[in-house]
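Thread: quick sanity check before group meeting

JM: Hey all, I'm pulling together slides for Thursday and realized we never actually wrote out the predicted structure for the chain we discussed last week. Dropping the sequence here so it's in one place. If anyone has concerns about the input, flag it before I start.
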Amino acid sequence: MEVVLRLRERVLGVVPDADEVVWDAANAVSLVLARSSRWQDGVCHIAGYARHANLGFNEGASLDDPLGVLEGAGKHIRHVTFASPAAVDAAPWIEEYVRAAVAQAGESEQMGDRGTTVRSTEGAKRRPGG
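JM (edit): ok, ran it. Output follows.
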């Protein structure tokens, strides 16, 4: 949980008014940082798992990745995995990538109105304690 909170702090340092959509999905709890209360409007997200967290970029497949840190082979999303708050602190590029994702989405760092929305998928969860 600490790694999720540290990632959230770093992302909100760039987009302090972003809407936060908490998405209780089947395999993780994600925090989507968006320009509105719709998770589909997300620019990036933080997915919390039992032993790590991912900082994902919703259109990361087309995001410049000069450091080669983005993982994934999907059509849109790319992510970086962090196992500890120390790993988050050791990644000075986070703000740069968040700014690039915001610009790519045609938004500014003032996007959103700091709203919070909680959503959940129906059915069984595929995670510890789910």
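AS: nice. The radius of gyration is 14 Å. The first strand starts at residue 19 and ends at 24.
JM: adding both to the slides.
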